[in-house]
Amino acid sequence: MKRNIGIIGAGLGGLSAAIHLRVAGHEVTIHEANPEVGGRASRIVDQGFQFDTGPSLLNYPWVFEELFAAAGRNFRDYVELLPVDPSVRFLWPDGTHFHLSSDMRALLAECERLAPGSRPGMTAFFADAAAKYRLSFDKLVTRNEDNPLRWIAALTPSEILRTGIWRSLDQELRRFFPSRYIREAFGSYGMYLGGSPYELPGVFSILPYGELAYGLWLPKGGVYGLVQGMERLARELGVLIRTSSKVRRIVRDRDRVVGLEMVDGRTIPYELVVSNVDTPTTDRDLLKRAIKTPKMTPGVLTFYWGVRGQVDGLGHHTIFLPSDYKTAFEDLCNRKRIPADLPFYVAVPSATDPDLAPRGDSAVFVLVPTPVLSDMPGLDWPSTVREIRGKVLERIGLQDSRIAVEHVWTPEDWRDRFGLHDGSAFGAAHTLTQIGPLRARNYSRHVQGLYYVGAGTTPGTGMPMVVLGGRMVAERIASREP
Ligand SMILES: Cc1cc2nc3c(=O)[nH]c(=O)nc-3n(C[C@H](O)[C@H](O)[C@H](O)COP(=O)(O)OP(=O)(O)OC[C@H]3O[C@@H](n4cnc5c(N)ncnc54)[C@H](O)[C@@H]3O)c2cc1C
After folding, report:
1. How far apart (Å, rounded) are the C-alpha atoms in residues 460 and 436?
2. CA 269 vs CA 247, 282, 306, 324: distances in Å
3. Is 348 helix (H, G, I), strand (E, B) or coil?
């Protein structure tokens, strides 16, 4: 049956859900609090510089191709993808560097340069992670299954063994790489999943594999070029997108959703509601329910610098790892403080798309992970920002005087701009007890007709995941709302 559906939030998950639901024939309206769509993947435009606020790299292009194909369109007619290859470069304070590439020959040569004898380990890692990747995506990641036993039973016993789900990511990497540097590089992905590589499940070795196998890309016009492509598709299909349209409350009649109350006091009737707002924020602020907070991913302190001239030595994406990697993770994840020996990354998207900066200049983005806000009560942000800024400039060798344009967002800004619970940048963590059917479900168990999409619910965080989540919530609605 065709329904009148209200979606709260035009992040990538909200846009994806809108596209799938519209394709299924529903009437769909999105209410976005901010003046532009995109959520965490928004943009800042200032004096000829354009900065993506969050993501700086696109992976798994097949996910976006499938989204557009579901609407009978060709992704490449809407979004041009520029390759970023060689892609991510890792740098250590002792001068060691490691540069990834999707070109297997170049990658193996780079492994040999960094750690002679590591070529067979990398080849074996690739074969192992490829099998895990296929099992995960074919049988687990995108299934709307609430029962953990039925979820895992989709795998045969030998397939379960293959996933490495009971080993830590670090243990998994140790099977292939004696080199501490390769392990630290691949294990650092854990930072965005909300745990250290010593705690997160080994199945996440599919992350570095997925980037190497499917490449890393920058949409033309920055990641915002992808957002604009998805917005255009949604509008063409007839999705109504209302920006500067903030929802105050999800309106219920007993235990059933009946509409949305806006901040201007109007109530708009909807038969079904999909919330793209961070899942704990939806429950606490829009439903006024007491919540049990999940373990969250870290917050981030982000700098957006318009720099005069080129930035020497930095390509599109450089990850600066600390000398004492384990302590940095322990500080961040367990001792709940910003590591003194700072891990951070720098993206220069204008190195890939020069139109993102005035001619000859550079748009520079810096991301420093931090604990979530409740773990740092009373922190003096202005002095913390000054201190971290100085450390970053020194380590990347950039003179302050070259910064012509600057924006800085603390975890408080991220919370206030997009409703991110506790200032966590990537949503609920992906620990063993918060993945698959154990993650917050994409429908409400308390309020009929209420659904969720985005980084806080299934399948998880990152642009491809929330876009897949849009399809999953549409399938969920099809099965629960006959
Ligand atoms: C700094 C950073 C770097 C990242 N880098 C990458 C990367 O390189 N690659 C990658 O794949 N992923 C990356 N990610 C992750 C990716 O950006 C997110 O997982 C994804 O964009 C989240 O989408 P979402 O669907 O959860 O929606 P969100 O982006 O959370 O959007 C939710 C929307 O709801 C709106 N909203 C909130 N409250 C209300 C209300 N009351 N009424 C109306 N609207 C409301 C918000 O304004 C927002 O637009 C990064 C994230 C961050 C923060």
Report:
1. 9
2. 13, 18, 44, 55
3. coil
Nearest CA to ligand 1 atom 18: 462
Q: Please check whether residue 329 is in contact with residue 197, taking contact to mean a CB–CB distance below 8 angstroms.
A: yes
State how far the Cα of 334 lies from the Cα of 336, in Å rounded to an integer.
5
* Domain locations along the chain: 4-43+55-79+220-295+426-480, 108-215, 298-420
Query: In the beta sheet, which residues pair with residue 299?
Result: 370
Residue 459, preceding peptide bond in cis (omega within 30° of 0): yes
Q: What is the value of pTM for the model shown?
A: 0.97
CATH number, span 4-43+55-79+220-295+426-480: 3.50.50.60
Is the confidence at residue 165, as pLDDT, over 90? no
The CB density around residue 62, as the number of other CB atoms within 10 Å, is 13
> Which residue's entry shows tokens 């006024």?
288
**Cβ proximity of 442 and 454 under 8 Å:** no
C-beta of residue 298 within 8 angstroms of C-beta of residue 414: no
Q: What angle do CA 387, 388, 392 make, to 5 degrees?
A: 125
The closest alpha carbon to 276, from 440, 56, 32, 65, belongs to 32
> Cis link prior to 437 (omega < 30° from 0)?
no
Q: CA of 428: how far to CAs of 57, 170, 194, 213, in Å?
A: 21, 21, 7, 26
Phi, psi of 416 (to 5 degrees): -75, -35
Q: What confidence category does residue 192 fall into, taking pLDDT thresholds of 50, 70 and 90?
A: confident
Q: What would the pLDDT profile of 459-479 be if each residue is shown by its tens digit?
A: 999 999 999 999 999 999 999
Identify the DSSP state of 334: I
Residue 378 tokens read as: 């009373």
**d(Cα 474, Cα 237) in Å, to the nearest integer?**
16
Residues with CB under 6 A from ligand 1: 8-14, 31-34, 39-41, 54-57, 246-247, 276-278, 300, 302, 367, 418-419, 425-426, 454-455, 461-463, 466
Q: Residues 255-291: pLDDT tens digits?
A: 999 999 999 999 999 999 999 999 999 999 999 999 8
Ligand 1: centre distance to CA 93 (Å): 32
Number of H helices, E strands in the chain: 16, 19
Q: Which atom of ligand 1 lies nearest, measured to the CA of 464?
A: 11
